[in-house]
Amino acid sequence: MDPIISMRGIVKHFGGVTALDHVDLDILPGEVHALVGDNGAGKSTLIKILSGVYTPDAGEIRVDGQLVKFSSPRQTRRLGIEVIYQDLALVEDFDAVSNLFLGKERRIMLGSQTLPILNQSLMYRQALQIFERVRIKIPNVRQRIFYMSGGQRQGVAIGRALNSDNPIRLLIMDEPTAALGVEETSKVLDLIRHLKTQGVTILMISHNLEDVFAVSDRITALKTGRWTATVRTAETTKEEVVSYIVGAKTQRPESVNF
Amino acid sequence: MTVRVGIYSSDLLVRGARLWQRGGIYLALVLIGLGLSFLSPMFLTRLNLIELVNYVAIIGIVAIGQTFVIAGRGIDLSVGSVVAFTACIMATFVKDYSIPPVLTVLLGVVIATCIGAVHGFLIGRLGVPDLVVTLAGLEVWRGFTYLLFEERVISRFDPFMRFAGNYRFNDWLPAAVIILLVFMVIATGIMKYTLLGRYILAIGGNRKASEYVGINYYRYKTLSYAISGFACGIAAWILLGRLNAVQSSLAVGYELQSVAAVVIGGSSLFGGVASVMGTVAGALMIAMIRNGLLIGGVNFYWYMIILGILLVVSVALPAWERRKEAR
User: B319: domain CATH number?
Assistant: First the structure.
């Protein structure tokens, strides 16, 4: 199977610090791929490159085999790459519907003219459909985000990422369960499994190996900016993944640290 | 663990704060109105009511502009100075330069709008905090006003210049009230139903989130201040007509009164939530308190003290409620 996203030899420096040192990452269509590593391993830098926030100093990125240059978040969104950041980037004072359509509001049409007037009822109906489709339960979509639980917020954020005008190629989730309790975490993990059955490809960053093993198909580990391993979740153990994370073990001979 | 404290809470203060936000202000308005009519036979006289609503119109219009600025998590402290500056240049246009009244008013409003836009531009592009730019604006525009007009009093304007602040339909309905109502309806529409209002609220509610989805922070910051400037221009026209005389010391203290009207009306001082209707109700409350003190013969300095306290309470209650709910 050909990867939908293929990163090769990605290098990123910040001043004298090498945040990423020739990192490779392939994401296969339909998989849940987990990106693991300790603080400072380069996970965030890597997804920021993948979402167009940073440009790499070296290396190449292919989307469906085509060489592309990522220049801005707007451009990567056009390619169907959506990111849900850890802080979720929701407007807490707005309700779920308004957040779902933030920046892509449906507007009233007058003939062929689009007026700068919001089409509230259309957005409301579409919001219900989207939440229904991805099985996100929001008791009251007119309620402000401020009053919602962490899991519901995550649901709204996922709904927004999927509510794209472009067909979604890759959904990147940054620590989707970090701020959640046990029950909410299991709901979000269910949601990830459900999205997978819908054919959504997911790259998920997580500190929590329990969660990683619960939903992912493959795992890539980074250690201080270097790729250490990519393994099938079904064929590995937590202990092995931990040793990749701390760098005690690596699939890359030339970068063995002693 | 999340604990919902909200409407089920037995905590009286939280419930009080909520009730206040959901229409308590309208109840308070009725109570103050009733109180004043019982306490003073002068309150319900035609002249007093016209004086009252004219004041509401001026403060209300400035405060509606302020509502847009605060919705975008800003604050416009320059409003009083901009009103004074605009009223004075309108006066000099029509009196010293014999510019036709209609053109004068138009020019005045355009200039005030541009002043607001410049404030917004400086805040957005140069990254100077809202407070600094508009505090400077408070000083700068007042400074220009004194520089150009010194102790001069320009008075006796023609009917068109006086129209907004003086004309009464059927001899009782002030034009200023009609202007306020029209402005309120349009502003409510913009805030609730247009992209402009939605995006100003979005940059105020969460700048990072709004920029992430591609909303242009600078554009909507600038537009929010331009709306405030526009409102100041209209208010200047009304003020000029109402007083039939302008001088450099006009419209002092509008910044506090307009900000108070906005927060009393239930908008969040921290952006993201705004109610134009509430702002007008807030302006009405402020004006009634002022009016009551005036006709009651109470030392007028009490007005400043009460207004200050009211402002602090209006900001403290919702902030306190939010902390409780987030717990």
Answer: 1.10.3470
Number of domains into which chain B is organized: 1
Instruction: Inspect the interface and report whether the beta carbons of A105 and B194 lie closer than 8 Å.
Output: no
ipTM comes to 0.83
pLDDT, tens only, A81-121? 988 887 768 999 999 999 999 988 999 988 888 889 999 99
B208 is a domain residue: yes
- The pLDDT tens digits for B238-256 are 999 999 999 999 999 999 9
A86 Cα to chain B: minimum distance (Å): 12
DSSP code, position A220: E
Chain A, 170 to 189: residues with Cβ < 8 Å from chain B are: 181
| Residue range(s) defining the domain that contains residue B235 | 28-326
In the block, residue with structure tokens 């009093």: B153
Is residue B229 in a domain?
yes
CA–CA gap between residue B100 and residue B106 (Å, rounded): 10
Q: Are B56 and B48 in contact (CB under 8 A)?
A: no
Residue B53 C-alpha, separation from nearest chain A C-alpha, in angstroms: 32
Q: Which of residues 27-86 of B touch A (CB under 8 A)?
A: none
Residue pair B86/B236 in contact (Cβ under 8 Å)? The answer is: yes
How many whole angstroms separate alpha carbon A11 and alpha carbon B83?
56
Q: Which fold has domain A5-80+166-255?
A: Rossmann fold (3.40.50)
Is B8 part of a structural domain of the chain? no
Secondary structure element (H or E) that encloses residue B245, with its range: strand B245-246
Q: Which residues of A touch B205 (CB under 8 A)?
A: 91-94
In sequence order, which residues have a C-beta less than 8 Å from that of residue A153 and are 6 or more positions away?
Answer: A88, A90, A145
Q: Beta strand A81-84 with A107-110: parallel, antiparallel or unpaired?
A: unpaired
Say yes or no for a CB contact (<8 Å) between B194 and A118.
yes
CA distance B300 to B293: 7
| pLDDT at position B101 | 94
Sequence spans of domains, chain A: 5-80+166-255
Q: Which of B208, B212, B325 has the CB atom closest to A73's CB atom?
A: B212
Q: Which residues contact B221 (CB under 8 A, 6 or more apart)?
A: B72, B74, B120, B123, B124, B203
Q: Is residue B1 part of a domain?
A: no
